[in-house]
TrEMBL record:
<dbReference type="GO" id="GO:0016740">
    <property type="term" value="F:transferase activity"/>
</dbReference>
<dbReference type="InterPro" id="IPR018162">
    <property type="entry name" value="Ala-tRNA-ligase_IIc_anticod-bd"/>
</dbReference>
<feature type="binding site">
    <location>
        <position position="668"/>
    </location>
    <ligand>
        <name>Zn(2+)</name>
    </ligand>
</feature>
<comment type="similarity">
    <text>Belongs to the class-II aminoacyl-tRNA synthetase family.</text>
</comment>
<dbReference type="Pfam" id="PF02272">
    <property type="entry name" value="DHHA1"/>
</dbReference>
<keyword id="KW-0963">Cytoplasm</keyword>
<keyword id="KW-0479">Metal-binding</keyword>
<dbReference type="InterPro" id="IPR003156">
    <property type="entry name" value="DHHA1_dom"/>
</dbReference>
<dbReference type="InterPro" id="IPR045864">
    <property type="entry name" value="aa-tRNA-synth_II/BPL/LPL"/>
</dbReference>
<dbReference type="InterPro" id="IPR018163">
    <property type="entry name" value="Thr/Ala-tRNA-synth_IIc_edit"/>
</dbReference>
<dbReference type="GO" id="GO:0005829">
    <property type="term" value="C:cytosol"/>
</dbReference>
<dbReference type="GO" id="GO:0140096">
    <property type="term" value="F:catalytic activity, acting on a protein"/>
</dbReference>
<keyword id="KW-0175">Coiled coil</keyword>
<dbReference type="GO" id="GO:0005524">
    <property type="term" value="F:ATP binding"/>
</dbReference>
<dbReference type="GO" id="GO:0008270">
    <property type="term" value="F:zinc ion binding"/>
</dbReference>
<dbReference type="InterPro" id="IPR023033">
    <property type="entry name" value="Ala_tRNA_ligase_euk/bac"/>
</dbReference>
<dbReference type="Pfam" id="PF07973">
    <property type="entry name" value="tRNA_SAD"/>
</dbReference>
Amino acid sequence: MKQLTGNQVRQMFLDFFKSKGHMIEPGASLIPNNDPTLLWINAGVAALKKYFDGSQKPRCNRIANAQKSIRTNDIENVGRTARHHTFFEMLGNFSIGDYFKEEAIPFAWEFLTSEEWMGIDKERLYITVYVDDEDAYRIWTEKCKVNPSHILKTKENFWEIGKGPGGPDSEIFFDRGEKYDPEGLGEKLFFEEMENDRYVEVWNVVFSQYDCDPEIDRKEYKELPQKNIDTGMGLERLVALIQDGETNFDTDLFLPIIYATQDMAKYPYQGEYKMAYRVIADHVRTITFALSDGANFSNSGRGYVLRRVLRRAARFGLKLGLDEPFLYKLVPVVADNMKDFYPYLQEHVEFNQKLIKIEEETFRKTLKNGQSLLDEEMNKADGKLSGEVVFKLYDTYGFPFELTQEIAAERGLEVNREEFDYQMNQQKERARNARNTQESFSKQNEELMAFVEPSEFIGYNNLSCKAKVIALFKDGHKVDTLSGEGQVILDQTCFYAESGGQVCDKGWMKSDGVLVNVVDVQKAPNKQHLHTVQVQDGILTSGMELICYVDTKLRAKTTANHSCTHLLQAALQKVVGSHIHQAGSYVCDEYLRFDFSHYEKITNEQLAQVEAIVNQYISDSYTVTKEVMPIEEAKKTGAMSLFNEKYGDFVRVVSMGDVSKEFCAGCHVENTAEIGICKIISEESIGSDSRRITAKTGMEAYKEIAKEHKMLENIANSAKSKGIKNIDEKVQNAYDQIKSLNKEIDDLKNQIFSLKANQWIEEKINIGTLNAYIKKVEGMDGKALKDVVSNIKGKDDNSVCFFVNVNGDKIVFVSGAGKTAIQKGVHAGQLVKQAAQICSGNGGGKPDMAQAGGKDVTKVDQAIQTVKEALSNL
């Protein structure tokens, strides 16, 4: 077996399949492109689903890739086991209706065992096949000469995820030897499928040959019209076997990160500290790659996942004595270690470090807040800390169970592990129920996939054309004639198909006695434009000659908006920063929407500057050029491209003077002056990692400007001004006056509260050794009552206040206690909570000040009496 680095293994895999006629597909971004079923790209096939379900045809039916992936469904195992990761690379080879089992199995065997490639000893490899897959068994034994004594037949070897393409699979296992078999069980570990570290799965080959439906028996599954091969091999796992690492972490893919962490830590990479190092090494790779691919930290979606990953790494850093932010310092180590295959990481190092450091510092503050909650709960605990509290500390503040347990033990307290586990399971159940239930793969449309006759788009410069009907479809089936609604494919078309964020064209098709409305245009699996039409008059027939007309008004407005998105991106990069890149867009005739990755709100000043620059670009009347050129040549021009977009050998480059140059297949104006004017309507967050700007151009922009002008006139009329000139100053003066009046009102209120406090302090009652102030009041909200309580507490340290305000069917309880009263055992939060529960409400707070609410006004007197009794028992 050859001794290779991780980078060499990856490259050797791709070189092998290139020699077998495979197109090497660049790995996709970790952020799925137009796939609502996935939070992250989580497998090599995830970015290729469009080929497997037949919705698109690849340029080559043989594909191989190295695909970065993220999975966090079992994050708690990362660091504990030898092979769990949140970020990993899947090496895969795929056949889309090309070769099948006869070639796929020998490919895997040759790559692993040939001396020219990996050179693994054949005797150390074991195979599993699906129990009914006689073809796979035959190929392994006859073509690959695998000893049948090394093959396990099992029912588990069948891959399916709901309805859609799936089928049997075959796995290859590597025997790591006796040192990973402490009990000396040998092959029993493999054939009885026992959990072990000796026989490790290396490769899985999925034979996607059936249209799966879990609701019926597998024997009834129908064969797919297009059979596919989907394989997967974890790079980290293969490298660990080659380099004989104790775990995946003991390889050159992780050790540089571990050693860099060790240089900062108090404890070495040994014994009980190994897990912490492994968690940090894994998680910082995840964070670095995810941020570089456009994700960010947030409280929902993938941003929440990323935040959780960082906090877990930071918590394990505490175990190593890393009390200050440190993860950001590891970003350059990750980028340097992966630069041979992922050079783009270098471009994002500084920006990623900034984001990670901010997040680490925020988490340190959160930990401090968690400590305050823990202290408060321990003060109340009677021998045992509830699992609900321990879970809240874990889930909200990032406290690991073990940390809480250790702190509690120092105070002589136990923690309720059963309650904690229950809360954890409840959370997992909620997460499971919240997952998207859409099927990951679509069903194949055999007739559309089989239609390969070419169709040419000529609509960049032609808004009408003559065309011939070459195919008609009704309800997914090919037909000879069409009435009502259906789909049409033409030999050539002037209608733009929806893509790249630009909506499709609409319009008409005509012939003698035939009138057809075009309502939608999408791309068919073989790239033809598939027109969804409504036949108004006559009947469409295959072979018919038509004259096609694009709705020119819609196209012109859409085109102006599309060109404006290019100028908008250029202006954002100039004002906000060069890191701004498109994360999505939507362009129609009414408005444009531009999504981009950014970590904070764009200020009003920045937004105004961006709008001004865009309109300057429009006014400068830049010529817009569109040129098709080889992709490598296009890259050399400095043209921007979408990071997660797949491009062919030739690309279309759209340039607007010297201010914008992008890869783009959409429709554009000839000169920026045609856009007319740009008006930004809104800027908003669509997740803390993404922002969205909505804007309008031309007449729609004018309407927005006119609407705002009318609004200013209305304000001027209300202010009894003769016009809108200087109306901003008048409004500001009015607000300043309101602010001054509010201050006077607050001063008067304070005087009233002080008088109330002085009045009520004379009405105290003695309960035990406490000075109690207990009253039902009217017309005072919670804030006002708290102000009175603060006044009384300030004058009497031995005071305990309990006030109730009833307003209709709503009750407000406010309680407070002075320092001396608290020392005697008074807890305002417990008092209001007890009263609120009697009155069908809830609430609580701190020992010195608390507020709660109730609904049942008939029990207010009972609540007051309960509070008096509680105080008398202290």
